[in-house]
Amino acid sequence: MFFHIVLERNMQLHPRHFGRDLREKLVSKLMKDVEGTCSGRHGFIVAITGIESVGKGLIRDGTGFVTFPVKYQCVVFRPFKGEILEAVVTMVNKMGFFAEAGPVQIFVSNHLIPDDMEFQSGDVPNYTTSDGSVKIQKESEVRLKIIGTRVDATEIFCIGTIKDDFLGVISDPGANA
Amino acid sequence: MSEKGGKGFAVPKSGKSALKSSASKGKDDSSAKSKRGRKVQFDSEGSLDTNSTKSNGKADIPSFKGDSGKGGKGEKAASGGKSKTAKAPDPLELRVEQELPENTICLMDCEAADILQGIQEQMVVLSEDPAIKLPVSFDRGLTYAQRNRLYHNPQAVKQILKPLKEYGVSDGELCMIANFHLESVDEVFALVPSFKTKKSKLRVPLENVLAELAKLRRAA
After folding, report:
1. CA A101/CA B183 separation, integer angstroms
2. Known InterPro entries for this protein (chain A) (predicted)?
C-alpha cells in the first residue's frame, strides 16, 4: 500500500555548496540519497513530495562538513502481512511463481496455489486447472495475499498466497489470444 | 514445569484426552467447564511432578509440543479462553496503523497515481539536470498505481467511504476497499479479515458504499 509520510534525515553538505542555492543542493542530494531506498519500517521511498523544514546546520568537528536536519514528505510503498495486492506474474516454475507489485517482488510457492492447479512445463510454463479454465502464466495478473516479508538493503521480498477466497487470477494474457 | 508434569501423567491414559484436558488447563482459571479437569490435573501435578519425568520422560515432551501446537491452532473452535485472548489478532490481519509512525497517511492507489504522475511531469522539466534521476522503484510504483487505478476522482471516493469511519473502519481498511474492484460484501469480509468482528454492523453500510463505488466506476 502507498503512504504519505514525513521522515527526517541528517544531511551532510560540503562547504563548497554553501551559497544562495544551498537549499536546492540539499534537496537534490536528499533525492539522490533516499529515493529508491527501502527499510523495514517504511518500505520503499518512491518519491519525495516536499520539504517540511531544514534545521540549523551543525559543523562537524575536524571537517568542514555541515549537518542539516531535514524533514521531508515522501510517498512510500510498503507491503504488510495480510495485505492484498494485485501483482503481475514475472516467472513461473515448478516451485511456484514470482510476481511484482510495484517495487515489491513476491513469490507464491506451489503449496500456496490451489490444489486443483497443476504445473505445466513447456514454452510458456504455467499453472492450469484441470478443465483449463484458469491459467497462471507470465504477465498474468493475480490477486494475492502477503503472508511474509523480508527486507533487504535494496529490495523487499514477500511470500504470498492465492489459496484463499477471492484470490487468484484477475486477467490472463492468454485469454485474449 | 509443573504443567508439563501434569500432562505427562495424563498421556498414558489416552493421548488425545490428555491433550485436550491440558489445553483446558491452560485456560482453566476462568472457564467453568474446566473445573473438573483442573482438579484432576492439580492432583496429578503434585504427586507426579517428578514421577512423570522419570517414568515417561520421553512422552512428556511430545505431548507438550503437540498441545501447544493444538492450543494455537484449535483455539477458534475450542472454548476460547486464555490462549485466545493472548493471540487475539489474526497474524494475517492488516495492522497498518500500529506499524507505521503517527503522521502517516494511507493513500489509495488512485491518489498515489495522481501524486506520482505529477512528479513525473515535473521531472520532464527538471530532467535537464543529470544529477536528478528517478529511481527504478519510482517507475514501478507509478506503473503499479496506474494499472490498479479504478477511479479518477479520489476526493469522490473519499466522500463515499467517509460514512464507514463512523463504524470504526481505519484508513488502511478504507484504502483496501478503494484499491480493489470489490463486488460483494462477502468479498470485502474475505479480503479484510479485521472486519470479522463487526460483520453485522458493517454489512449494510458496506453494501451502500460498494454500490456507490460501482456507480463511480461506471461513470468514469
Report:
1. 22
2. NA-bd_OB-fold (IPR012340), RNA_pol_Rpb7-like_N_sf (IPR036898), Rpb7-like (IPR045113), Rpb7-like_N (IPR005576), S1_domain (IPR003029)
